[in-house]
Amino acid sequence: MTINGGRASLSVYGSEDSLCSLTAKLKQNFSSNNQPQFIKNGNMARLASSDHDRTAHLVMLAMPNTDKSVIFELIQPTEDKARPVMLTQESVVFGRSLPAGSMLTATIRNEDTGAVLETMTSPLPPNLFFDGLAGQLALNGWKNISPPGDKSSVPGHFGIFQRKEALCIVTVGHDLRENKTCVTILSKEINRQ
Predict the structure, then answer these.
(1) For residue 108, what is the domain's CATH number?
(2) The total number of structural domains that make up the chain
(3) Grouped pLDDT means (10 residues each) for the chain, 193 residues
(4) Phi, psi of 138 (to 5 degrees)
(5) What are the angstrom distances between the C-alpha of 95 and each of 74, 92, 144, 149, 179?
(6) I need a labelling partner for 44 at 20 to 30 A (CA). Which of 57, 61, 68, 122 fits?
(7) Cα separations (Å) of 47 from 8, 65, 81, 82?
(8) How many whole angstroms separate alpha carbon 171 and alpha carbon 131?
């Protein structure tokens, strides 16, 4: 995959260990390397470690109603080894006309499947931003095909949109680290792998 134009790889692993047991093992394994950054918060833990060639980011999640975990591993070249990364303000879904008040923060492209994950931030509250985004998508020919559901049970906002042979899945919610709205957009042509 590419992230903001730079090469990277993403792997997902299942673990029979609980989150606490898994994080203890990973802390022990990484302790001989450079001092990793390790953060645990509720049912999630994050670990980042670098050497002179690459940086590994691990996100570990506790599986609900079981003592198992899942690990997301993202490996990228370290910044000094990576080619210059260019993040433009051009979205795959919106082009140069980003939703009002938003800023594109990352673009991740799977070169094999053509799937693109984009993240944005906005100072607007999630409900206002989602309504504006959905309106802009509709003006650009996207049809909301989200299944009906109980919106009160899901934090944030979620929508599935289709335009010809392309799908777009949007989630909008609060950024837990900053007082901003965080937007995630996954888009893909239906007829590709």
Answers:
(1) 3.30.310.80
(2) 2
(3) 78 88 81 59 76 80 83 76 52 86 85 87 90 93 82 66 93 77 88 60
(4) -60, -40
(5) 27, 6, 19, 30, 26
(6) 122
(7) 17, 23, 21, 21
(8) 12
